[in-house]
């Protein structure tokens, strides 16, 4: 065995190894949870209406004119929800307006769109919806760094009126704290 001296590290390598740096493998950095490059639509009301338990990133199956519309920043998911039918996840009631230059090849604005998830994720979501009475709520539609349209999907539980009042109280208190710190800090 041959001892290789590297600053801050000593490593024993067999004689037959040609590249001594192969033994010094590094851990691959963990990627960010969601790689959002361009957010197209956001459901801001969802965090007020629901307790968000878990989030998933799902691909979105789109036609050509839908992609062009989304790239122009048009689209709304304010009234939309997701459901699982026949072992597939669907985004229902999301509005992607018709593309201005789409002519006869344009799409239907509020058609159900298939969400691309792994089978294990779909089973997990379906179990939570059926057993725990949770809801699948889309939080945002965005394009990732590779240019793919993605949906941030949340597994959520609805808030009642008292929970919403508490949320408003907390938000106002945080705003007041920031104001006090800015003025007197």
Domains counted in the coordinates: how many?
1
Radius of gyration: 24 Å
Q: Main β-sheet, in a few words?
A: 7 strands, antiparallel
Major sheet: arrangement of strands: 3-8-9-4-7-6-5
Per CATH, the architecture is Beta Barrel
Instruction: Tell me the name of the CATH class.
Output: Mainly Beta
Low-confidence stretches: none
Strand content: 25-35%
- Tell me the distance between the termini: 62 Å
Describe this structure in words.
By secondary structure, the protein is α+β, with helices and mostly antiparallel strands. The chain is 27% helix and 32% strand. It contains 4 helices and 9 strands. The strands form 2 sheets. The chain has a 7-stranded antiparallel beta sheet with strand order 3-8-9-4-7-6-5. A hairpin with a 2-residue loop joins strand 1 (2-6) and strand 2. The chain is globular.
Helices and strands, with pairings:
Layout lengths: L1 E5 L2 E5 L24 E5 L3 H4 E11 L3 H8 L9 E5 L2 E5 L20 E4 L2 H14 L2 E9 L5 E10 L2 H24 L1
Antiparallel strand pairs: 1-2, 3-8, 4-7, 4-9, 5-6, 6-7, 8-9
In short:
The protein has a single domain, classed as Small protein B (Small Protein B, Chain: A). The protein has helices spanning 46-49, 64-71, 119-132, 161-184, and strands spanning 2-6, 9-13, 38-42, 50-60, 81-85, 88-92, 113-116, 135-143, 149-158.
Comma- or semicolon-separated keywords:
about 180 residues; Small Protein B, Chain: A; two-stranded antiparallel sheet; 4 helices; 9 strands; about 30% strand
